[in-house]
């Protein structure tokens, strides 16, 4: 741990000294206003850096830079874009330790997960690099008396707005397909965790990405974020964050008719039938709520268990939750680190009171934890004896907090699973294949995993239904968003 702290301190020194600058038209620049805001580490609440506080003026400069760079970038053959994107992946791999450690100190996420997240960022770039060659491929549709040729072209400059949870991985997931499609980008990262976005844009330009193709403006959501969604040169906004922010962005973008892609919140059920492979289901349920501090859109925050196995299953989860190692994010042994920020910690702690007041039982955790540095640590928590009308079953807590609810039969499980405003993911545990198909068809979720934790395969669609999102990422779905489709019809 001491070695890791020393290395992380080395990586962070430049931010403490020079602050975190914007990046516009290939230049690292402060906010035009000269204003900054301070970020702190959730480990010890000490300042990490002063960050450029961009506003509408900086967004305007970034949008113009992205607009100016667009024609040349869009005209570059896909094979050339492919090479550059692979070089970005090389750069990420070369600096994966630095990225992971900076991310740990900025977000509180445990190193064991951030090391993987950094490499997944490289994988995202490689995946979309290889697709860049085919992004513009069209098809021919023949009908009597006509031949139709459909083609796709990049939309133009796009805005990408990302949240504070796993910010590095999520930024690569949104930006790599935009670049592969031939779009240029203005990125506005979350104000709680802006450090890795700065590393990423530097890596991209060192890899040969032309200046102005990727611009970065830090700032507050209601200032820089809002200005980005309203800017007339920005053709589309890819947004990852809370559902209510998505709703604001839709309203803000209405005047300029922005195309939007939203990956929003979730209250994802894991449904365990009594014929399930119990040991695997326990492992997966524990992993899906307590890994990444529970600050994960696809976390399985509602545990629906069939009556006959409810007590034994929840007892196993409670024992596992109590045994989880909460600690310094840079400690390789740590499973749960401090939550992102005192504001968020307060929100998560408030749900411990709400759950108790609503009559649920705290079977594990339910209080603040002590940890090195005295930061935003909370205990991995399990509520039992809950029902689906309780706030702890309806609202996204976004922490290591699981709410367990018993169900009688398949019909009741389905009704409870669907009785939330969200519809991102569902996890289903049963050995009955017919039931798995039937249930998957009716459960309201953009993604269903059967007998598995969240196991991503990049060509498959990722996204949510209901208040969990609009649109899909992954594979060719990403290009549908970042590209415009044209049909040319020839009479024969
Ligand atoms: P948030 O909505 O508060 O902020 C996300 C981003 O939006 C930040 O960069 C913020 O500055 C910006 N923003 C805020 N107000 C804005 C406005 N009016 N206009 C433009 N931009 C604005 O979300 P958060 O708290 O940072 O992240 C956590 C949320 O993200 C959770 O709800 C989580 O479920 C969701 N999330 C979803 C997915 C998914 O794939 N579905 C993935 C990760 C996170």
TrEMBL record:
GO molecular function, one term: 5-carboxymethyl-2-hydroxymuconic-semialdehyde dehydrogenase activity
Domain Aldehyde dehydrogenase residue range list: 32-488
Pfam families per UniProt: Aldedh (PF00171)
Residues at the active site: 263
Database matches in InterPro entries: Ald_DH/histidinol_DH, Ald_DH_C, Ald_DH_CS_GLU, Ald_DH_N, Aldehyde_DH_dom, DH_HpaE
Record's keyword terms, sorted: NAD, Oxidoreductase
Family matches, as PANTHER family: 2-AMINOMUCONIC SEMIALDEHYDE DEHYDROGENASE (PTHR43720:SF2)
Family: Belongs to the aldehyde dehydrogenase family.
Protein name: 5-carboxymethyl-2-hydroxymuconate semialdehyde dehydrogenase
Upper classification of the organism: Bacteria, Pseudomonadati, Pseudomonadota, Alphaproteobacteria, Rhodobacterales
